[in-house]
């Protein structure tokens, strides 16, 4: 370097120096200073620290420093170290000869190179081939060997940090840096063990093996981690007793640890931590192979096997370290199936987070929520649960294990890539924190200058950028960890035995039969079809199947569920989100299994629209949408399609999706009966309104406003899955004959469009309750309706009007209609004897005519004794009698009217409860019969399997069909007695 430059303090401040005045003074004191050097120092993580270190280094070794500054690559690495690590800068100043460690082009040294170099530092490289025993004898009289080892460790840390801190992509090489630090720890331990043996009397009488655990075992070491180890000891010869050998091995192990952790003028290396050994710090430091075998086979806890996942030979007797792994490795890959394994691991993780001091919770990079430990625990849990039968997952390192989990379909590629990037980012921050002062810490430093240094060393400008990136990363990790670590799939698979996971053909048939599959041979063929092959979809299905089979088996029809799952998976096999959602989507897979083994109705709609299974991804959304929301959605799909067919197809498809939402929520017990009735009724109203809007398009101008009066169960907001939409249509009094004709065409077209055959469920618009029934006009004016009802209507028509309500179309017209007929359905003077007798005669005739011959009338949910009709007609009779004077009875809802009867003292609490139980049970049985069988029926299912499925959906235990029949018969028998008294007028 030739020439000097004088840089003003103001310019240095602009270049990033914090104490620009002092920096200007220091630059002036340098023997050689150029713009190039100023810019190189300004690019350091901490320019002020780098400059001060360079000045001190030149004072210690001017020639060596000038040589380093003269070569740009060497200078860049030197400045990177000085600006990124105060501790390594101080080491260089004390030992300037180590400058040469930064001269070569950065490259990772092999474990063999590092070990050879350290042995040479101890002074015995030429004897290394003779074995460690020879090495031990050679250092017995050399008190400086341990200090040379400490200094050699610092030199290698300097070399590794030079590569790390000067990298333009530090996160890309963070795993290489960690692995090389672990290789350095191995070599240190080899040398420390040799020195310890030299210092221990009779060391030749004992063998000692050292097993690496934790980050060192996984080769994910930090710059200043504790080194987790475990010691194994045995006699060196048959002549040495076990007790004597273990005693000597204990002294050797203790001396090894002291050499690594002791402080001297040459500094220290790191702490050796043997707390992960059997019984922790309360247990013996060294155990024999048999001692370890006894402990791990009989007493070790789940977390101890999780710790052994990282175990690998580190130093000492290779036969002992391999022997230890032979004992523990098979046990490690069984722990994932131990009782309560996942719940124990999850509880341990929560406990670790809970113990973090509140002031450190947002700064804990390792243990905090979204920190390194979250990634590690998630990966280890997946490995230990699935690695029992899949040896491809058996790795020690976090990132290589994460890659294997993604490659074989256990983790989504997006999750894997995001967690990989997050883990690298957080490890890089951890490395930067520790290398600064060579102190063990996992906390984001509170000091702004320290954060700025870390940020700049990682390519960011300011401390705030680092904090923002770290918090965003932690939130993302926490979210993904919650999805993976607390996955129901992972929890379920952890409870299965290895044979159950493998699903070997011989064991599978027996298990399938025991689980309740009627045709285990056929079920096995479906399973083989789903799990044969090497595609990613097949890999994921192989993981899903053990849990899916268990979930399907809890349903009433496992065989139906399995074949339906096969059909759905074959249809959706190439859809990227489908299997990923089942694997990662919380309870989605379990919920799907419940649906597929329970409901033909849901299966049929899913098969028409397989993408609709996405509804299960958000179980909280499996509830009815309100009418305003439904109307808005229907209006939007109508406006998006110009053609009549396209528009009505879109309307019916939306209705099908909403029907499925309700049916899924119903099967899964997330919707009660009242909410279901309102949801189905609101959906019918929104659908009819949309169909009218489509039908109007085909008419020329002049269609009058049309009000749709909902009748029957639609009007009462008590629709079932199979209910028709009973309706009447009203137009304004000023509508011309031509407009009325147009309205009739629109209504007929809307009804026709909604019942067209096709993949989507039809909705039957039934206008038979209109004046004069099928012989009457389809559409009437408001005045025409009111005139008819005032002059010619009969008592049964007044009864039908009880459940009239707004359905669709013009709301004001319907409101006027309802106001005009209120005096008929809520008669001020109630009913006379003839009117009551007419109602009873009509009900008796209906039961006689409408109950199908050859069926058991006691099992007829609608018309049988104590069934729906009995309860509804009894309540309606009470309304016709009393609603003229009791305002609370004026409701189209059966249950609300029944509640009013009770509260107004028109029937006893016991009678009301009996009728309420009967109506609700019959309604539930009718709805769930439809869900189970996929077709409507007013009869209880004759097939015991279907009846069992209905029982399960109603919350009864599997196989309690007979109890459900008993319950229904008992409930309706009691209701029938109440109806006999209150409706038929019979005495007790």
TrEMBL record:
InterPro entries listed in its UniProt record: GlnE (IPR023057), GlnE_rpt_dom (IPR005190), NT_sf (IPR043519), PII_UdlTrfase/GS_AdlTrfase (IPR013546)
Domain of life of the organism encoding this protein: Bacteria
Domain Glutamate-ammonia ligase adenylyltransferase repeated: 109-325, 591-819
Top-level EC class as recorded in UniProt: transferase
Keywords: ATP-binding, Ligase, Magnesium, Multifunctional enzyme, Nucleotide-binding, Nucleotidyltransferase, Transferase
Enzyme Commission identifier(s): 2.7.7.42
GO function terms (MF aspect): [glutamate-ammonia-ligase] adenylyltransferase activity; ATP binding; ligase activity
Gene Ontology biological process terms, A to Z: regulation of glutamine family amino acid metabolic process
GO cellular component term of the entry, any: cytosol
Domain PII-uridylyltransferase/Glutamine-synthetase adenylyltransferase: from-to ranges: 348-483, 845-982
NCBIfam families hit by this protein: PRK14109.1 (NF010707)
Protein name (database record): Glutamate-ammonia-ligase adenylyltransferase ([Glutamate--ammonia-ligase] adenylyltransferase) (Glutamine-synthetase adenylyltransferase) (ATase)
Native source species: Propionibacterium freudenreichii subsp. shermanii (strain ATCC 9614 / DSM 4902 / CIP 103027 / NCIMB 8099 / CIRM-BIA1)
């Amino acid at each position: 370097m030739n020439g000097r430059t004088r840089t003003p303090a103001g310019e240095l401040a602009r270049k990033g120096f914090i104490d620009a005045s002092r920096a200007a003074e220091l630059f002036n004191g340098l023997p050689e200073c150029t713009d190039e050097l100023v810019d190189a120092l300004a690019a350091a993580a901490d320019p002020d620290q780098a400059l001060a270190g360079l000045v001190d280094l030149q004072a210690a070794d001017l020639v060596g420093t000038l040589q380093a500054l003269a070569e740009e690559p060497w200078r860049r690495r030197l400045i990177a170290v000085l600006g990124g690590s105060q501790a390594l800068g101080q080491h260089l100043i004390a030992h300037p000869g180590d400058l040469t460690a930064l001269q070569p082009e950065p490259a990772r040294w092999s474990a063999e190179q590092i070990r050879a170099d350290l042995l040479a530092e101890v002074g015995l490289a030429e004897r290394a081939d003779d074995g460690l025993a020879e090495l031990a004898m050679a250092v017995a009289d050399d008190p400086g060997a341990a200090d040379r080892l400490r200094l050699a460790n610092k030199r290698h840390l300097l070399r590794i940090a030079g590569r790390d801190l000067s990298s333009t992509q530090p996160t890309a090489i963070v795993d290489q840096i960690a692995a090389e630090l672990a290789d350095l720890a191995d070599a240190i331990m080899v040398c420390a063990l040799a020195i310890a043996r030299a210092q221990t009397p009779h060391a030749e009488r004992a063998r000692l093996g050292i097993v690496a655990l934790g980050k060192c075992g996984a080769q994910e070491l930090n710059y200043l981690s504790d080194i987790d180890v475990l010691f194994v000891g045995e006699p060196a010869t048959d002549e040495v007793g076990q007790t004597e050998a273990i005693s000597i091995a204990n002294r050797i192990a203790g001396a090894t640890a002291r050499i690594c952790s002791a402080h001297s003028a040459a500094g220290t290396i790191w702490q050796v931590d043997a707390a992960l050994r059997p019984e922790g710090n309360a247990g013996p430091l060294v155990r024999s192979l048999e001692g370890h075998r006894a402990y791990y086979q009989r007493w070790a806890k789940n977390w101890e096997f999780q710790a052994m996942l990282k175990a690998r030979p580190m130093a000492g007797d290779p036969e002992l370290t391999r022997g230890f792994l032979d004992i523990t490795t098979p046990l490690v890959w069984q722990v994932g199936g131990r009782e309560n394994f996942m719940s124990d691991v999850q509880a341990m993780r929560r406990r670790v987070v809970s113990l973090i001091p509140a002031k450190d919770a947002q700064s804990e990079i390792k243990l905090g929520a979204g920190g390194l430990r979250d990634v590690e625990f998630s990966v280890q849990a997946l490995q230990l649960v699935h690695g029992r039968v899949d040896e491809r997952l058996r790795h020690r390192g976090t990132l290589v294990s994460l890659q294997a989990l993604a490659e074989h379909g256990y983790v989504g590629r997006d999750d894997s890539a995001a967690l990989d990037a997050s883990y690298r980012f957080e490890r890089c921050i951890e490395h930067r924190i520790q290398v600064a002062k060579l102190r063990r810490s996992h906390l984001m430093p509170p000091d702004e200058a320290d954060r700025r240094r870390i940020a700049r060393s990682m390519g960011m400008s300011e401390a705030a950028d680092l904090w923002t990136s770290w918090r965003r990363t932690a939130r993302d990790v926490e979210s993904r960890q919650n999805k993976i670590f607390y996955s129901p799939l992972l929890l379920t698979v952890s409870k299965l035995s290895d044979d159950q996971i493998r699903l070997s053909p011989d064991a599978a048939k027996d298990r399938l039969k025991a689980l309740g599959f009627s045709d285990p041979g056929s079920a096995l063929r479906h399973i083989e079809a789903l799990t044969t092959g090497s595609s990613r979809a097949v890999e994921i299905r192989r993981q899903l199947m053990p849990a899916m089979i268990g979930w399907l088996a809890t349903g009433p029809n496992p065989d139906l569920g399995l074949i339906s799952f096969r059909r759905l998976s074959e249809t959706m096999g190439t859809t990227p989100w489908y299997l990923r959602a089942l694997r990662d989507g919380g309870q989605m897979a379990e919920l799907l299994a419940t649906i597929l083994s329970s409901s033909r109705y849901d299966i049929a709609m899913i098969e028409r629209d397989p993408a609709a299974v996405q509804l299960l991804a958000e179980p909280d959304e499996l509830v009815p949408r309100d009418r305003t929301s439904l109307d808005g959605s229907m209006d939007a799909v109508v406006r998006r399609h110009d053609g009549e067919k396209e528009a009505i197809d879109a309307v019916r498809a939306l209705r099908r999706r909403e029907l499925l939402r309700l049916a899924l929520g119903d099967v899964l017990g997330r919707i009660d009966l009242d909410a279901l009735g309102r949801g189905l009724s609101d959906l019918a109203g929104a659908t009819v309104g949309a169909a009218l809007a489509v039908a109007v398009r085909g008419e020329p101008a002049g269609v009058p406003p049309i009000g749709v009066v909902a009748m029957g169960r639609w009007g009462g907001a008590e629709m079932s899955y199979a209910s028709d939409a009973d309706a009447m249509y009203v137009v304004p009094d000023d509508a011309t004959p031509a407009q009325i004709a147009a309205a009739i065409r629109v209504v007929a077209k809307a009804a026709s469009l909604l019942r067209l055959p096709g993949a989507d469920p039809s909705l039957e618009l039934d206008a038979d309750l209109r004046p004069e029934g099928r012989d009457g006009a389809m559409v009437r004016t408001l005045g025409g309706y009111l005139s008819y009802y005032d002059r010619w209507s009969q008592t049964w028509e007044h009864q039908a009007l009880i459940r009239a309500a707004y359905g669709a179309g013009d709301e004001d017209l319907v409101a006027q209609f309802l106001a005009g007929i209120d005096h008929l359905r809520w008669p001020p003077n109630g009913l006379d004897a003839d009117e009551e007798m007419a109602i009873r005669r009509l009900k008796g005739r209906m039961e006689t005519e409408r109950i199908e011959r050859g069926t058991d009338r006691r099992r007829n949910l609608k018309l049988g004794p104590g069934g729906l009709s009995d309860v509804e007609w009894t309540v309606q009779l009470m309304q016709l009698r009393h609603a003229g004077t009791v305002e609370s009875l004026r409701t189209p809802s059966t249950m609300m009217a029944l509640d009013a009867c009770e509260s107004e003292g028109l029937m006893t609490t016991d009678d009301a409860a009996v009728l309420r139980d009967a109506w609700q049970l019959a309604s539930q049985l009718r709805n769930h019969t439809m869900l189970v069988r996929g077709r409507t029926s007013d009869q209880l299912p004759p097939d015991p399997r279907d009846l069992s499925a209905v029982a399960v959906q109603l919350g009864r235990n599997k196989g309690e069909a007979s109890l459900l029949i008993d319950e229904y018969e008992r409930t309706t028998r009691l209701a029938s007695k109440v109806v006999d008294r209150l409706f038929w007028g019979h005495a007790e």
